[in-house]
Each structure stands twice: as structure tokens, then as C-alpha cells.
Specification:
142 residues; mainly beta; 5-stranded mixed beta barrel; two-stranded antiparallel sheet; 9 strands; 7% helix; globular
Length: 142
């Protein structure tokens, strides 16, 4: 089973591109943080932040384009997918991505309600076939 569930904050505004036939794809950098703690022997374990590269396809990507911004809290579900690619300087690179199947926005938009509790705003998952980058030869345009 290949399933990932994350809750984190968006690190920058999403990168969005439209491929052939108007297929939308979006990339979001999501930060998740594990709290620091103290071991029984007194050793301090510091807070740890991980950055995740999340890829959205079709309708989910269009929702991301319209409503997701830097600093927003998101819940995402998806699968881990690795890819090899060559950068503009000809250097071989590898990345680990989260291909998102389902997302909920956990940040409210109203500044007047900034102190209010976050409200979940579900986004319908796309079909599994719609989330695969096969039509782009397994590569993302980012």
C-alpha cells in the first residue's frame, strides 16, 4: 500500500501550469513539523520540519490555483512517487513527490475571523487515472 496523509503549511504560492488539452497541474511545497521533546534522560530533541513536494492534477490543481496561498494549512492524501530528471545545467536529479488524490483546506479566508477555529473545506478527489502523469511521459512541468 502506498498512502500518505499530511497536515502542513504551504511554503510559497503554488506553481501552476496548463499542459496540452488544457490539463492543469499544480505544485505546492508543504511543510510539516514534528514538535521537539525531552527524553527521560533529559536529552532535548529539537523540533523538526520536513518539506514535501505535492503535485495536484486537473480539477484539484484548478482549486489549488484559485484558493491556496502561502501560509495556508492543508490536509492532503496521496501517494509517494519518485522521479528522475535532468535540470537545465544537464545534472541528473531525483525527487520524491506526493501525488495528491484528496485535499482539504484548513485555513479560513475571512480576515475578520482570523481568530476563529479553522473550517475544513473538502475537495472531491479526482479519479486515480486522472492523477497520473502518464500523459506527460511521467514528468511534471516544474
Amino acid at each position: 500500500m502506498n498512502k500518505v496523509m499530511l497536515i502542513g503549511r504551504v511554503g510559497a504560492d503554488p506553481q501552476v501550469k496548463y499542459l496540452d488539452q488544457g490539463v492543469c497541474v499544480a505544485q505546492v511545497r508543504l511543510a510539516t513539523t514534528e514538535r521537539g521533546y525531552v527524553l527521560q534522560n533529559g536529552t532535548q530533541v529539537p523540533e523538526r520540519t520536513e518539506w514535501h513536494n505535492c503535485i495536484f492534477w486537473r480539477k484539484s490543481a484548478e482549486v489549488v490555483e484559485k484558493y491556496v496561498h502561502k501560509g495556508d494549512r492543508l490536509y492532503v492524501e496521496g501517494k509517494i512517487q519518485s522521479r528522475d530528471w535532468t535540470d537545465r545545467q544537464g545534472i541528473s536529479r531525483k525527487s520524491i513527490d506526493i501525488v495528491v488524490d484528496n485535499m482539504e483546506m484548513l485555513t479560513t479566508r475571512s480576515t475578520a475571523e482570523s481568530a476563529a477555529q479553522p473550517v475544513a473545506q473538502p475537495v472531491q478527489p479526482t479519479t486515480p487515472a486522472a492523477t497520473k502523469p502518464e500523459e506527460n511521459n511521467g514528468e511534471y512541468p516544474f
